[in-house]
Amino acid sequence: MVRPAPRVVDKESLAREGADWLARALGDAVAGGRRASLALSGGSTPGPVYRELAKREVPWTKVDFYFVDERFVPPDHPESNYLLAEESLFKPLGIHADQVFRMQGERADRDEAASDYARLLPSVLDVVVLGMGEDGHTASLFPGNSALEEKERRVLAVVGPKPPPWRMTLTLPVLQSARKVLGLVSGAGKRDMVRRVLAGEDLPAARVTQAHWMMDQAAAGREP
Length: 224
What we know:
- There is one protein chain.
- The protein is of the alpha/beta class.
- It has a single domain, classed as Rossmann fold.
- The protein has helices at residues 14-29, 46-53, 81-93, 110-120, 172-177, 191-198, 217-220, and strands spanning 7-9, 36-40, 63-67, 69-71, 127-131, 155-159, 166-170, 180-185, 212-216.
- The protein is globular.
């Protein structure tokens, strides 16, 4: 598969262009009257994109929302990816609770929570939002973690390198089968990792080969 060329924009345009890309992808997904699935990631880069996306004309009543990963924290915790999506997207749009399928990070039995979430997922996700860490991780799939080799299970409980350590994540088979994937990256701190991922080095983010990466000039190593 030919890896899509990355899109490099200035920092001020990243949220707008990311929102435009997602709005187009969702519009295509609901064509013909079908429902669409959108899987969200957390982090400082997607947040502004979600706030901008909430301003777009999308048939939102036909979109179901899922999550790429989540920390094992309550949904109102500051580290919760759900809380970010709720404040930046669900509340501004008035999304009905029945459209949101969140990962239940407050549950004590982490493996059971992951198994239950796997049963909620559609067979194929229409649109997925990913980020990229300075270590090359995406979702909560970290370099060297055995979760990268999972072939059967669609959702796993994993331990990350930063607190709070326990997380729930979609696995690579789910991400690799998604119809459209937008990867978002910003900041000079990720410049080296962006170069390595786009070169095809065997890092978690590089394994989602159909991802369309969109980044600011700092992450791409280009001077404004």
